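User: Fold this one for me? It's Glutaminase.
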Amino acid sequence: MDYSKVLQEIKEEIATFKNTGKVATYIPELGKVDPSKFGVYLQCTDGNGYGLGDSLDCFSIQSISKVLSLALALKLKGKEVWKRIGVEPSGDPFNSLVQLEYEKGIPRNPFINAGALVVADILISELENPKEDLLQFVRNIAEDQSVEYDEKVAASEMEHKFRNASLTHLMKDFGNIKNNVDDVLDFYFHQCSIAMNCKQLTQAFTIFLNYGKYDLSKEAAVLDPILAKRINALMLTCGFYDESGEFAFTVGLPGKSGVGGGIVALHPRHYSVAVWSPPLNKNGNSELGMKVLELLTTKTEISVF
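Assistant: Here's what I get for Glutaminase.
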């Protein structure tokens, strides 16, 4: 497959795309990002990579980080994680309190905010230096020791923490948060603030390309095959909140979005791909990013289905 040619065709096709999305402003620091930024990077399992636009510009990965923190938690605790978090799509907004109350403090899946907060709680309990150890894990799988937290974004999120604090306190009341609430929030906001570019993200996500043999990081077989399989399934069914079905229908790949405008998707045994375009649709997913990935699987005629 000539992916370079495919990406150029996509670039030409989206030149006239009318982007009606809006940059996230509920985290004020994210609202400062240039809405015209656009980058794509595709990393193949044969080691070849293809970039387009601002693919080497770093941005806050936000909820994309939930996949990486989950991977680390599963490496450390295995099936124990699923005693505290479900694996079903939510069908509700990613920060819903109503669903969490109804289900007695057990988040529907690890990719809604409540689920990621429980994962954060698990990592705080298991890691000796939680923030440092998570960042080192991400650096290792990204093959880049320059990856850092964006402290301004983390501080901006802490300043406007109220909904996430409500979720965490509610789960604490149900006994599903073990550590201090502010410690969990601090870890979670730092996790979401991680700044990476499209190329680094595609490298990091090679650990999910199934399974060991196609992992391009130096930490060979970073994930057991069964864990990569389970996380891919969750990305397909839950990676885009209440738009996960639409993404599966139009794109047909496991993936995860973030309100920083990034989306990572992958085709097991073939490639990982990251797109960045800050303006979001009404569901909190990059409007242009969704379109680019739909065009990618349409033009290549390759998806998981």
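One thing worth pointing out: The chain has one domain: 3-300.
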